[in-house]
Amino acid sequence: MRKKSLFVVFALFFISSFSIYAQTEPATQSSGGGIDWFQVIIVTGYLLGVFILLPIVIYTNMKEKLFSPNAENSESVQIIENLSEEERNNRAISILEKIEEKLTPFTADNGENMITITSGKQAKFVKEGLDYINVHLVPTNLDAIARAEEFAAVYADRTQRAFTGSNWVIGCSLGVGILVFMMAGISTFIFIHFLGLVFYVLASRTTMYTLEKRMKYFGRSGGIIGSILSGLFVGNGVKYYVKNSSGYVKRDWETEGQMAIFGLVLLFIAAMILGFFAAFLGVINALLNYSTSYLLPFKPKVDWFETNFALN
């Protein structure tokens, strides 16, 4: 029943996206006959981001945590009936051994050999494996239970997500939304624009293992967007001076005023562009942060063990 409801939601999203695309497609041609790439990027961000990737990102965030059997979700536990207790324990041990093989080994500061998650593929395998154990096997072997809890702790630590997006983008997007609201009131665009901003925030949440890779390869820089925007403020610190005929040097307040106004105009233009590009930037962040670890509601989980272990 839940899958059917999700299918209806996705169907409505697709229908809405196609209807919006049908309305905006003629506008992608500029008056000179060329393609209006600015509008293409905006439309792509809203259609691909809001109507396709946003449901996937939301579902992944909701289902990314491991299944932990307790009194509240006991109905979700579906133990495989045709397996004996010993067979269920052996199958759980096999899964745990496979998980250990897939994880990345490293040496801790104290010299102890340990394993960790360094990729989305590993994270998905750990989650699906541990969920299969907790839902369908429920082992009684104490060593298997302890090992599963150890892997669960590693998964919980490594899949924590931190916001790595730009507060500038959020602020500019909010500014664009407020400006459009003041000019046109509540409209379909305002609703879609708000979803685009929500999508950007969620898509910019990065797992610890992904963040470590970025810090390793790119250091602790503020990113391209941050560098460009901070560069716009450089002109505010520049002082202009003029020398008159008597040789007296004084501040050229007129030039400084003109440059300040020019800088504000550039800043406003940049803010407007970033505000409209929030959904498109969200698409980029979603591909970077979720492309290897996304979860889908339509993928069957019952045959997970048979698929990954190729039982004969």
Short summary:
This protein has helices at residues 2-24, 37-63, 85-102, 120-137, 142-158, 167-184, 188-203, 208-218, 223-231, 253-276, 278-290, 304-309; strands at residues 104-107, 113-116, 161-163, 205-207, 241-243, 249-251. It is mostly helical and 312 residues long.
Shape: elongated
- Oligomeric nature of the chains: single chain
Sheet with the most strands: spatial strand order: 1-2
How many strand segments? 6
Q: Sketch the major β-sheet.
A: 2 strands, antiparallel
**Beta strand %:** 5-15%
Order of helices and strands: HHHEEHHEHHEHHEEHHH
Structural class: mainly alpha
Rounded to the nearest angstrom, the distance between the terminal CA atoms is 32 Å
What's the number of domains?
2
Helix content estimate: 55-70%
Quote the average pLDDT. Answer: 76
SSE arrangement:
Elements: H1 2-24, H2 37-63, H3 85-102, E1 104-107, E2 113-116, H4 120-137, H5 142-158, E3 161-163, H6 167-184, H7 188-203, E4 205-207, H8 208-218, H9 223-231, E5 241-243, E6 249-251, H10 253-276, H11 278-290, H12 304-309
Antiparallel strand pairs: 1-2, 3-4, 5-6
What does this structure look like?
Helix content is 64%, strand content 6%. It starts with a helix and ends with a helix. Residues 1-31 and 220-243 have low confidence and may be disordered. With 312 residues, the chain is mainly alpha-helical. It folds into 2 domains: 2-63 and 163-290, no CATH class; 74-158, no CATH class. The chain is built from 12 helices and 6 strands. It is elongated and about 75 Å long. A two-stranded antiparallel sheet has the order 1-2. Helix 3 (85-102) packs parallel to helix 5 (142-158) and helix 4 (120-137) packs antiparallel against helix 5.
